[in-house]
Specification:
Layout: H1 3-14, H2 18-27, H3 46-56, H4 62-69, H5 74-90, H6 93-105, H7 113-117, H8 120-128, H9 134-140, H10 145-153, H11 155-160, H12 165-173, H13 180-196, H14 198-208, H15 214-220, H16 226-233
Helix pairs in contact: 3-5, 4-5, 5-6, 9-10, 10-13, 12-13, 13-14, 13-15
Length: 235
């Protein structure tokens, strides 16, 4: 283990907050049978992790960052994905491809919703913005919850560029998915589509609102006027 990685892990460890850790372990569902089962938290807030990322990301090699990503500690994995994001932003096209590949090869370690949400649009979405996006459909059909969430969250980057087609198509794939975290993610992305083009979102809703998961629907219509929300909530 290189000294820089050891120093980063040491600095993270110094920020341990047992009371906050207990709160986060409940919030991120780490109990038996829950989606975050067995995850271990130090209890460090995201701004504190980001501060360390800014300090260390240039000196942490990709090899060491992969080691950090394989950690059992949630905040170490969070630090690892944020380092990848920071490196990606400064990288040339070849380096971006390497970071993108590392991210997807290690997707099973990007294994809670905050880790996905803070990294997938910035890495996968940005990398695929002007490339073939077939990989997203493969991820959407994965048996791994986090790969599925990566597929829909990556489209956030496209949405910001007013490209909605992949969000809509992947949302259709997830209409029969049984996990609440996918329902929430899809609803959120549909809502973001609606912020930019409500007609596109409503075309999807009018087709599926009677059969789509209720959580997905509620997230999608969250910003609608009250009368319109009531309309869509009627079955």
């Amino acid at each position: 283990m290189r000294m820089t990685l050891f120093q980063l892990q040491s600095d993270l460890s110094k920020l341990k907050n047992p009371r906050q850790a207990a709160i986060l372990q409940r919030f991120f569902k780490t109990g038996k049978g829950e989606y975050g089962q067995g995850d271990i938290f130090y209890g460090i807030k995201v701004p504190e992790v980001r501060k360390l990322v800014r300090q260390y990301y240039k000196d942490i090699s990709l090899e060491d960052d992969i080691k950090l990503l394989h950690s059992k500690i949630h905040e170490e994995r969070l630090c690892a994905v944020l380092i990848l994001v920071a490196k990606f932003e400064k990288a040339d096209e070849k380096e971006k491809g390497e970071i993108y590949t590392i991210y997807l090869k290690n997707a099973k370690y990007v294994n809670n919703w905050d880790l996905v949400d803070l990294s997938a649009p910035n890495i996968v979405g940005n990398y695929l913005l002007v490339k073939d996006r077939k990989i997203l459909y493969k991820l959407a059909k994965s048996k791994n919850l986090w790969e599925k969430r990566i597929s829909i969250l990556s489209t956030y980057t496209f949405i910001r560029e007013s490209q909605f087609e992949d969000t809509i198509k992947i949302s259709e794939i997830f209409l029969k998915d049984d996990h609440d975290l996918i329902h929430k993610a899809v609803g959120w992305m549909l809502r973001e589509v609606g912020k930019r083009d409500q007609a596109v979102e409503e075309k999807f809703l009018k087709k599926y609102y009677k059969t789509m998961p209720r959580t997905m629907l509620r997230y999608a219509i969250e910003k609608f006027p009250e009368n319109k929300r009531k309309f869509y909530l009627k079955k």
